[in-house]
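To whoever is on call:

I kicked off a structure prediction for a single chain this morning and the downstream step that reads the tokens threw a length-mismatch warning. I double-checked the sequence; it's 124 residues and nothing unusual in it as far as I can see. Pasting both halves so you can look.
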Amino acid sequence: MNPKKTILIVDDSRLTRFMLKSLLLKNYPDWEVLDAANADEALKIVEENRVDFITLDVNMPGMDGVTLGTELRKRFPGTPIALLTANIQQATQDKARAAGLDFLPKPLNEERILEFVTNGEREK
């Protein structure tokens, strides 16, 4: 039996956090889904919890998602981290990959989210 997994959703949009949380709990009802509206909240959560997966928005107040992802990647090199954004410009995708982050375009797509989780499980 797999141990309980925890995913952290970081997005300044309450609606996006709610939608992503609902989607994840529909497919993984035994998981813990944590959420943060900005980088400061996210950093506090990862200090206090073991997190198996992280999704990040790009545009947030304060530290942006790419900068936060770079910081999290240094601290948690084996944790799957995805940048979720409506900004699908190649430059944004390149920044995500350079930081070691997966890139998932918005709007949210259940298939892409589940693929991110499945691939992340496989690569651990």
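Update from on-call: the warning came from a stale cache, not from the record. Cleared it. Sanity check on the structure: Strands lie at 6-10, 32-36, 53-57, 81-85, 102-105.
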